[in-house]
Design brief:
The protein contains three helices and six strands. The chain is α/β, with parallel strands linked by helices and 173 residues long. Helix 2 (49-64) packs across helix 3 (150-171).
Amino acid sequence: MKKLSLFLSIGIILYLLGCVHYSFYSRANPHLKTVMISEFENNSEQYDLPELITTDLTEKFISDNRLKVMSDNADMEVKGSVLSYDKTVFSYDVQEDPQEWQITIRFSIEIKDMTKNSTIWQNKNLSLSAVYGNPENEPEKESDVENYTEEDAQREIIYDLCDIILSNSVEQW
């Protein structure tokens, strides 16, 4: 009977410990509860980039659920610019025809604490790249080319940009 009681007690303790929620998220700035994502400026010829970035970044903050996204009067503001968009040949096939291209997009990003009028994080020359290949050319290995179209490569860069902004806005506190 004592053994059964001991096992039952240990089982209850382990169950309760399993229910404990532990988070690595610190709230060094508990006054920041809302975020405003301003439309990105565009200095490139890719006219749809600012809208794609703003949409994806807004969805990223909403799904993260640590800060409420506001259209104005927020505690924190994310501002950015697309500084440049470069597309270069990355590799050639045996006939010296382009097989893969590399896109490099440069950004300027600023994250401001609007209540304290201070900069949380800033990078005036953030450069992100992705490679894509001609969909008509099958890569030798599946891992050779992850993106088959220019739009796929753009999406990868925007995804990486959103991760960088989110981690530097809420996880660095």
